[in-house]
């Protein structure tokens, strides 16, 4: 294994076992949609219908802001929430509470960084509890995925932004992770490197015990929205698959074992955020609230005739209009997910209605107006009733008698609050999160009932079929100079099930795919099943191929920029033409997503890095060049903006999750981590077409939590100033983070330039 882990891994599965951490099988409401992925509770629970705050059935309240769904396992409640009201005091958290009292057992807080998230869009998601291990999986709003034991010990962690180029959006929409078999599944819009450089909706499978990446899948095309829906799993013949909506408006089917995109269907001109419903063999229900592809209306509920056997030949198969069994344009839901109960589909819609349609025909049975509008909240079903939160702080309990809904109770939540999450059920308790607090309701005068534990599904046994393909884990890796990474090579059967490990029998070698646009190799040696970079290894990227018995599979990796890295771009070739007809080259392949957003130019007697202006999508870009575990370093570079006194652009560097930005139009030097959480600036009159030198660092103070965020900015060629141009103290600093470059060219009008970049260890 590597001497210093590429993702912030606190322990591997072996380390967990050696540390004495006990694995607990879990049962309960483990995911946001319950045990069957559909929002329906299968248990008879004697649930209450009066959900009034302060009423007889109000068991306890936990004060924290929330916008998602709590999950419950074996007497413990897990929820994503956030604390604080404004400014830098806002922190996202995962909390573990006692189901009977609401008392806090443990919590872990996440400090947001480099995201666009606005204040009221935190914690729009849910934890997930794995039934086999009892481990708890969360994703913070800025894309940090964490695996916890049930007692709150961190097992492993990934920073999706810094490792895979996850993009950030103001709407938050983190959604929920999910496990199936031995894997944890996550989604993101990422702009990684190489073939994964273009921004796409991607799905990732990690080994749930160790966090090693198993595969990444790109089922669609260029996204127009940040999708929120979680995978819904099923079997397609002998193959395990999942169904999900993409940011490019497709319903997609993906092989859960290999990541192969199986088929897709274009449903919307916007992203799909609601979960799908499997409605029997060959039928899938989907809903959306964006513009339809064939009309000017917004929103549609559809039933799709989907394949019942795994398709042969090239994939993904594109399903056409003939796949629609029926459609209903009266249903429109941006992120609220539907229910399927007794042959009927129920959903809340954007205009505040609670609607019901016939599964066989799609015809509307009833539409009941409950509120002015609906945003995220999804209904749930238990004990023969529908529990329906509405956006404007109302929580309805509804029974359906024949073809008519009957409102059993209309419960007002906190004044000024909103309801964005969905109910959860456990024993005789109902749990619901408003933007003000998490509430538990149950029968008056009774302690919360803890139902008997249910044995988890038996672990999948290895396949006994012949090995038909290979899988290399991890599927992607990163190294600093002097580090190593070991691999496992798995033999898979024809359906993607693991047969056995063949690592010791396989041979690994560097490999350049025939279709690769950049012919590049990773600067490292291969010894058996281990890749080791030398102490002087250069920044590089490439693929490694494993072969066994006439079968082959690949992994790919990068040597990252670490301490001592220097780049003046002079050694990088030109020879390409940009849209302006200028001779250009490309930045290092190992920089995340940089080749689509930056070019190398001849300027001022040498080669420099400049951002591309050929797409409005790239008028702002941040590209990471190192790993998230780097800390206590100085990153500096020469920087310049094109333009004039009226129109200039911004150029900057990221150090330890802080963006240092020469905002030329604003005449300031600015530092920010997340604009709404922490921003500080000092005046600085930058002139257009003038080189400056920007030097940055982050230093801890004596408290162990706080520290100083510092930068110097001065004209290139002049002596370095003795004092910091900008120096800010924070009570809680980011202790580590990947270095990056930054550019913002409003309306892609004026280019910025970077030269003589370096990363050095602090004294």
List the helices and strands and how they pair.
Layout lengths: L12 H6 L9 E2 L28 E6 L7 E3 L2 E8 L7 E8 L5 E7 L14 E2 L1 E2 L6 E4 L4 E5 L5 E6 H5 L10 E2 L1 E3 L2 E8 L9 E8 L5 E5 L14 E5 L2 E7 L4 E6 L5 E6 L10 E2 L4 E9 L6 E8 L11 E3 L4 E5 L10 E3 L2 E5 L4 E6 L5 E6 L10 E3 L2 E6 L3 E8 L2 E9 L11 E3 L2 E5 L3 E5 L27 E5 L2 E4 L4 E3 L1 E5 L5 E4 L5 E5 L13 E3 L2 E3 L7 E9 L2 E9 L6 E2 L8 E2 L5 E2 L13 E6 L2 E6 L8 E5 L8 E9 L8 E6 L2 E6 L4 E5 L6 E5 L8 E9 L6 E9 L10 E5 L9 E5 L7 E10 L2
Parallel strand pairs: 7-12, 20-24, 38-46
Antiparallel strand pairs: 1-3, 2-36, 3-4, 4-5, 5-6, 8-9, 9-10, 10-11, 13-14, 14-15, 15-16, 17-18, 18-19, 19-20, 21-22, 22-23, 23-25, 26-27, 27-28, 28-29, 30-31, 31-32, 32-33, 34-35, 35-36, 37-40, 39-44, 40-41, 42-45, 43-44, 45-46, 47-62, 48-49, 50-51, 51-62, 52-61, 53-58, 53-62, 54-55, 54-61, ...
What are the segments in which pLDDT stays under 50 over at least 5 consecutive residues? Answer: 1-21
Helical content band: under 10%
What's the end-to-end separation, in Å? Answer: 29 Å
Shape: globular
Percent range for β-strand residues: 35-45%
Total strands = 62
Could you state the oligomeric state of the chains shown? single chain
What's the CATH architecture of the domain at 566-761? Sandwich
